[in-house]
Amino acid sequence: MQGLMMDMPLLITDLIRHADRHHGSVEIVSKTVEGPNPDGSGAIHRYTYREAHTRARRLAKALKALGIGMSERVATLAWNGFRHFEIYYAVAGSGAVIHTINPRLFPDQIVYMANHAEDKLVFFDLTFAPLIEKLAPQLKTVKGYVAMTDRAHMPKIGVPNLLCYEELLAAQDDAFDWPSFDERTAACLCYTSGTTGNPKGALYAHRSTILHAYAAALPDALNLSARDVMLPVVPMFHVNAWGLPYSCALTGTKLVFPGQHFDGKSLHELFEAEGVTLSAGVPTVWLGLLNYMKEQKLRFSALRAVVIGGSACPPAMIRSFQEEYGVQVLHAWGMTEMSPLGTVSTLKAKHLKMDKEARYAVQNKQGRVIFGVDTKIVGQDGRELPRDGKAFGDLHVRGPWVIESYYKGEGGDPLKDGWFPTGDVATIDPDGYVQITDRSKDVIKSGGEWISSIDLENIAVAHPAIAEAAVIGVKHPKWDERPIVVAVKKAGQEVTRDELLKYFEGRVAKWWLPDDVVFVKELPHTATGKLSKLNLRQQLKDYKLPAA
Ligand code: AMP
Questions:
Q1: Residue 530 placed within a domain
Q2: 69, 83, 330: which is closest to 216 by C-alpha?
Q3: Which residues line ligand 1 (CB under 6 A)?
Q4: pLDDT digits (tens, 9 = 90+) for 533-544
Q5: Does residue 271 sit within a domain?
Q6: What's the N-to-C CA distance of the chain in angstroms?
Q7: Of the residues 333, 452, 533, which should be mutated to test ligand 1's pocket, given the most ligand atoms within 8 Å of the CB?
Q8: pTM over 0.90
Q9: Taking a C-beta distance cutoff of 8 angstroms, is the pair 283, 314 a contact?
Q10: How many domains does the chain have?
């Protein structure tokens, strides 16, 4: 017997329709890339969910007029801002697919992705006008380029069919009914950064996006509400800003988009001016903000929690936010292939009775799954390992917002027995908390055992003189590999190699102690702000371990 409930497709347009109807006066505030006009206006754009919905409908009509059909790909090269938000809804809502491109990738990779996706239109922020001009001749399927600005700010670049965003909207009215279609229809396309081989596309559906949006909003996930003000620092070109443009519409949360400046000063000013209560971003961004706050002796007046993920959040950062600023850290883990949220570290009732250090030990982990995601760890032989918080193995996941296959079937079937192997190595404890110890290719294999580079990096950055650190394995004649620390010192701080090595003693097992320290001015990062160990290994290819 079937249930007798309405069979309504889960569509992305329902989010913006809901936000308009029930949170219509809630603001969306954006730092624009056009910058202040001579009269001082224009730096900050302010409107409401209702106006965003109206403009998204006009844009959907404009897309139709430009001949964008069902499931055709429309690309963006843009920062977090109100027009990008409108494109999110207009493109997916009209049945096409929004392909958000990370502008920090190498131009060759961008060309590869746009051609692979067969993008028909490219929307771009003014910052990227020179890049668009350079790339346009190689973009084979693109019929037009839309500058996300008004006529007064149009860039003077030589690209075919250059269109003005505000003119496209001005030519349409908002009398538009969002179409209804199968909830499994593709909505958004995000490519993995592809450290080896070509990038591969994760193609999200309307259904997967809505389920993810519900899940992300839960109290033990990102804890969004109609009383909150969310500033996503994580870019809208990095896995849909972790789904926040959808989840915030679902919960009626005020949105603040930071535009192109993520430095401590710009962020702090915006946090204070708009009463931001929640924010989300990668550890590097928070490092910059915390340093600035300390230098300037500043406080947050409204901020209550920050979501930190994308790479491991150092325990020292969690402590600093919570003890010095009273801001809760939500340590989260996920990946492009997971839309991206998998786990978030929030405490259970029993942890509240524990002492502070025991609570931190839980919080430092990447957290528990959100309902919908299932996890397991498997050993080299493919067999499931115990959930005892000690055994570590390859982390596999499944769930309705986890990919089944890459776009165009690239790379064959990625699943193993119906599970997606994440490429991360982890432990899972009896309470379900996942702790990521490494990317599988970064694990340090020493004397037949594994050493976690993330654990060692966390210790290094807890040293008061260290700003950032990467730990990599280097070849060793006896032990196969041994860990070394590559570290950046904080400005004006000193620490010697031997002092830093000593700092590890007593904090890890003896055989985990790094063999050497190399100080560098800066560490290489990927386009999404993660440490690029691939580049680091290349940089250190001539490095030799000191003789024992
Ligand atoms: P991406 O698909 O580019 O977002 O990268 C996903 C990868 O980032 C994951 O597979 C992890 O290796 C890493 N990652 C994300 N969040 C965390 C975290 N909280 N701790 C450790 N690694 C993380």
A1: yes
A2: 330
A3: 192-193, 239, 309-313, 331-333, 335-336, 340, 366, 422-424, 436, 439, 528
A4: 989 999 999 999
A5: no
A6: 72
A7: 333
A8: yes
A9: yes
A10: 2
